[in-house]
Design goal:
With 146 residues, this protein is mainly beta. The protein has one helix at 26-30; strands at residues 11-13, 51-55, 61-65, 68-69, 86-88, 91-95, 113-116, 125-128.
Length: 146
């Protein structure tokens, strides 16, 4: 499964049938895009040929994986996957496996993979991460803006 450097899960939106993002406005507030100003750099189990970027309507650069634009959910904590297989904004949100396919179930079997990405312009790279701690029952903080 893909995570950012802080342990935030990364999702794809199955309503997007091309690499062109369709999640804007209220959708992007709830599901902020994974953005970068640098070239994505793979590591670990991530396949380099699957990493890419696409320009959003506002001029920002969104990271893609296996042709899917990538997103966060704005209201999850570290290593919490609260919204896998959730239908919202006209499609289903699914966590992403290192092979680029959505996970069919959660939690998945096998090693986890991290996406190291900065929403503040640093390049993105992907590498394995240590086992995730058990999810906290405290309320997750909203850290992202569209």
């Amino acid at each position: 499964m893909l995570y950012d450097a802080s342990g935030q899960p990364i999702y794809l939106f199955d309503a997007e049938t091309t690499s062109r993002p369709e999640c804007y406005g209220d959708c992007a507030k709830a599901w902020p895009p994974v953005l970068t100003k640098g070239k994505p750099r793979p590591a670990g189990a991530v396949e380099p040929d699957l990493l890419g970027t696409i320009r959003r309507r506002d001029g920002s650069t969104q990271i893609t994986y296996a042709g899917h634009p990538l997103y966060f959910y704005a209201h999850e904590g570290k290593y919490q996957v609260l919204c896998h297989n959730v239908t919202e904004f006209g499609g289903t949100w699914l966590v992403v496996k290192p092979n680029g396919q959505p996970a069919s179930t959660w939690p998945p079997a096998g090693p986890a993979t991290s996406v190291i990405a900065s929403r503040w312009g640093a390049p993105m790279s992907i590498r394995p991460h240590p086992p995730a701690p058990k999810p906290s029952l405290s309320s997750p903080e909203a850290r992202r803006t569209a």
